[in-house]
């Protein structure tokens, strides 16, 4: 009986092997496509991270130079630098040279800005400015030195 159906069974088994091989190949190709897509996604995220990091570094350079060249008030530069320092991983924010950014920020962060500042009376705005200028005068030398150190650190990345 086996001899009678031998060729038919052989053909069915060959077809079964071809079907299983085709399914296995398609699954394997699908896994390769998934891996490639994951790799592409990781590369895209890495590129975006690198671009963001470069943007932050360039912003720090511009603001630092503006502070040193007195094109920007020390308090405004401090606020901007401090916020950007928290967005970069290349700069060691625990560096004692950069403590001034955080100390000055803590003293000026309560001052009104933007719309809240516009809503202040002229006298209230004058009083805030007077206090802010006093604080800036106390921190001026250390802020300028910290800014120079920051620019040196940024230049070391190039």
In brief, what are we looking at here?
This protein is mostly helical and about 160 residues long. The chain is about 80% helix and about 0% strand.
Would you give an account of this structure?
By secondary structure, the chain is mainly alpha-helical. Helices cover 82% and strands 0% of the residues. The chain has helices at residues 2-68, 74-85, 99-108, 114-119, 122-155. The N and C termini lie far apart (82 Å). 11% of the residues are buried.
Major pleated sheet: none
> N-to-C SSE series?
HHHHH
Number of helical elements: 5
Spatial separation of the terminal alpha carbons: 82 Å
Q: Notable features of this structure?
A:
158 residues, mainly alpha, 5 helices
Task: Spell out the blueprint of helices and strands.
Blueprint: H1 2-68, H2 74-85, H3 99-108, H4 114-119, H5 122-155
Helix pairs in contact: 1-2, 1-5, 2-3, 3-5
């Amino acid at each position: 009986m086996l001899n009678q159906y031998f060729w038919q069974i052989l053909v069915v088994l060959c077809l079964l092997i071809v079907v299983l091989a085709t399914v296995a190949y398609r699954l394997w190709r699908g896994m390769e496509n998934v891996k490639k897509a994951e790799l592409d996604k990781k590369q895209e995220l890495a590129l975006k991270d690198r671009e963001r990091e470069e943007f932050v570094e360039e912003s720090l350079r511009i603001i630092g130079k503006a502070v040193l060249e007195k094109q920007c008030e020390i308090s405004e530069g401090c606020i901007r630098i401090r916020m950007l320092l928290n967005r970069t991983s290349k700069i060691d924010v625990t560096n004692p040279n950069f403590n001034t950014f955080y100390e000055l920020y803590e003293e000026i962060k309560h001052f009104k800005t933007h719309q809240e500042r516009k809503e202040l009376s002229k006298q209230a705005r004058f009083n805030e400015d007077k206090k802010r200028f006093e604080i800036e005068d106390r921190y001026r030398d250390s802020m300028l030195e910290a800014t120079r150190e920051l620019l040196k650190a940024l230049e070391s990345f190039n």
